[in-house]
Amino acid sequence: QVQLEESGGGLVQAGGSLTLSCAASGSTFRSYPMAWFRQAPGKERECVAAITQSGLNTYYTESVKGRFTISRDNAKNTVYLQMNSPKPEDTAVYYCAAGKYTTRADGYDYWGQGTQVTVSS
């Protein structure tokens, strides 16, 4: 069982930066691939980035490549999403998830409650 809690969301100007954090409870964090998903109003939940247990492999959706960075600190049971040069179209509720290394939402067993990110132009 893993409990996840996101933090760091808020209002940011386009071109700025924002870092999301997701703290996990339990001693099994390091055994799970992790991912950040986002969901904008009227849109499906989308995998933004994913990272393997060791952190050696990562995935990014095309629209955030070169701007967002996913990382993890297994000693701190925390996964991060560094958002550089965000755009208004990045506005969404961002969720962290633990499960399999996949872009499919149904591959993840555990989810945080979500944190709102709003990018102003």
Uncertain stretches: none
Mean pLDDT over the full residue set: 97
The string of secondary-structure elements, in order, is EEEEEEEEEEE
Task: Figure out the total of helices.
Answer: 0
Whole-Å distance between the termini? 40 Å
Instruction: Write down the overall geometry.
Output: globular
Largest sheet: 7 strands, mixed
Helical fraction equals under 10%
Q: Percent of residues in beta strands?
A: over 45%
| Structural class estimated from helices and strands | mainly beta
Radius of gyration of CA atoms, rounded to a whole number:
13 Å
List the helices and strands and how they pair.
Elements lengths: L3 E4 L2 E4 L3 E8 L9 E6 L6 E6 L6 E3 L7 E6 L4 E7 L7 E8 L8 E4 L3 E6 L1
Parallel strand pairs: 2-11
Antiparallel strand pairs: 1-3, 3-8, 4-5, 4-9, 5-6, 7-8, 9-10, 9-11
Description of the molecule:
- Helix content is about 0%, strand content about 50%.
- The protein is mainly β and about 120 residues long.
- It is globular and about 40 Å long.
- The mean pLDDT is about 95.
